[in-house]
């Protein structure tokens, strides 16, 4: 796996990032194949020190440009270093080196797959599935969902490779360099949420590459709390996806206005503001569908 880069994006998550790096190194993954990007967080000095201690690649961003921006920095550096395969990992994801190797071998063996991911289960309940691949519903304003979500994996009968999906969850996503060559990198305008969805949609719409989840390969995440920050970007970016890919914008705006009224009744003013700002920024921001970044 000398041509594989593992990319971990850090933003105020030093403990998780440190744990993940130690886990990889304890399983003898080459340190110089690990790229850690700090998105100008308060952990910057700790991350810099970690890089010296562990001899991993450290990239310090001068600003927080979001998920796509940070990962794109590392992807560019890894390509310069001669890497051909890339695994994007959230700091709170657990995945074994054996399962990383399985995904890597899948991409090398199945030359029709451009992006692949593992089955994702919960760290606190390892039999419960979080995702066997992402789903998007354009008639519902590209509302997102996950295949087999919340199911007990012991009761699920599924194909080894699930191709009937719309995107790979960005918390654990492996791809080949040819994807960058053909459709460019992830769109940094999204900042966070839906950027991997748009990237997978761009791939499926404009190329012959397939995306797949290997359901025999597992990673584990932690469910996170959602707040106003999350709701703003989910609202705005869903509307953006609708504008770019002919989704039902009215569905999103009606749903979000309904949630705004509900938030106001409960005096959750910051939440209501997030919905309203997300709607207006989603509708009126100038957008460009980027097929290939220059």
TrEMBL record:
Keywords: Glycosyltransferase, Transferase. One of its GO terms (molecular function) is glycosyltransferase activity. Residues 6-183 form the Glycosyltransferase 2-like domain. InterPro entries: Glyco_trans_2-like (IPR001173), Nucleotide-diphossugar_trans (IPR029044). Pfam families: Glycos_transf_2 (PF00535). The keyword DNA-binding does not apply. Belongs to the glycosyltransferase 2 family. This is Glycosyltransferase 2-like domain-containing protein. It comes from Epilithonimonas hungarica.
